[in-house]
């Protein structure tokens, strides 16, 4: 008796799940046809290839352009001087030496890199030049050099 009930439950459950999958497939196919998903996947529209390139960069960096703009607190129309100013300020404020967050500082750097990648993809390669990272790297190198001078040679 118990085996019969279990079998009936399994059959009913399989039918319900099967119908749900078929309905989801029909809805996905209808949405793709309505939104032109098949045409964009084939590269049939000119906007689809630009979007695909931007999506590829976003997947590679893990950050969208909008997220990068939000992190740097700028708009798409911002001038390069404003972008550099905001980048340098956020980089300095989040420096671990002054009690900042290394995580946030790295997000600021990744946002800058994402914008540079976007500009390069648009055919307008620009670099956000900042004095701070170069100065910090030079300072770190000089500290490492002085530490190496103080240690006795290994025998």
Automatic annotation (TrEMBL):
<feature type="region of interest" description="Disordered">
    <location>
        <begin position="123"/>
        <end position="155"/>
    </location>
</feature>
<dbReference type="GO" id="GO:0005744">
    <property type="term" value="C:TIM23 mitochondrial import inner membrane translocase complex"/>
</dbReference>
<feature type="compositionally biased region" description="Low complexity">
    <location>
        <begin position="134"/>
        <end position="155"/>
    </location>
</feature>
<keyword id="KW-0653">Protein transport</keyword>
<dbReference type="Pfam" id="PF03656">
    <property type="entry name" value="Pam16"/>
</dbReference>
<comment type="similarity">
    <text>Belongs to the TIM16/PAM16 family.</text>
</comment>
<protein>
    <recommendedName>
        <fullName>Mitochondrial import inner membrane translocase subunit TIM16</fullName>
    </recommendedName>
</protein>
<keyword id="KW-0999">Mitochondrion inner membrane</keyword>
<dbReference type="GO" id="GO:0030150">
    <property type="term" value="P:protein import into mitochondrial matrix"/>
</dbReference>
<dbReference type="InterPro" id="IPR005341">
    <property type="entry name" value="Tim16"/>
</dbReference>
<keyword id="KW-0811">Translocation</keyword>
<keyword id="KW-0813">Transport</keyword>
<keyword id="KW-0472">Membrane</keyword>
<keyword id="KW-0496">Mitochondrion</keyword>
<dbReference type="InterPro" id="IPR036869">
    <property type="entry name" value="J_dom_sf"/>
</dbReference>
């Amino acid at each position: 008796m118990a085996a019969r009930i279990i079998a009936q439950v399994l059959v009913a459950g399989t039918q319900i799940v099967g119908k749900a999958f078929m309905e989801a497939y029909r809805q996905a196919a209808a949405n793709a046809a309505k939104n032109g998903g098949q045409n964009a996947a084939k590269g049939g529209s000119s906007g689809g290839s630009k979007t695909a390139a931007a999506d590829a960069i976003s997947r590679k960096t893990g950050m969208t352009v909008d997220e990068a703009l939000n992190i740097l607190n700028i708009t798409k129309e911002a001038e390069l001087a404003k972008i550099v100013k905001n980048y340098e300020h956020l980089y300095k404020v989040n420096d671990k030496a002054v009690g900042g967050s290394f995580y946030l500082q790295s997000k600021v750097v990744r946002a800058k890199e994402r914008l540079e990648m976007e500009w390069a993809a648009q055919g307008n390669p620009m670099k956000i030049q900042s004095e701070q990272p170069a100065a910090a790297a030079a300072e770190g190198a000089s500290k490492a050099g002085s530490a190496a001078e103080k240690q006795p040679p290994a025998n």
